[in-house]
Design brief:
single chain, alpha+beta, about 30% strand, signal
Amino acid sequence: MHNLKLIALAAFLLVNEAFAARIAYWAWDKTGGLKKEGKWEQKNGGEIAEDKEKLLLDNIGTWSNHRFTANKNSRSNIIVVKAVDKTQDKSGATRLIQEAESIVRQHIPK
């Protein structure tokens, strides 16, 4: 009986995992990195429902007045939402990432 419950739980978790798309947020910090030549600040944004993937990819520009773009990495299958503008420092990049997260959450609730 316990084995059956365990198998059912495992199947449920696998099915839920199969229907979720991972998302990450990136913003360019002009002064970041070891040599202060700039680097991408990145944040893992969790997951969105797979059926909302196309909606995000097609509309993030419109939703954000073209301040952000979104592409799906073909190797990792992660959707990367990138800020178009480059910031002067890490705190600016962090603000852009938070703004992108807010826009996605507003249009694609969990």
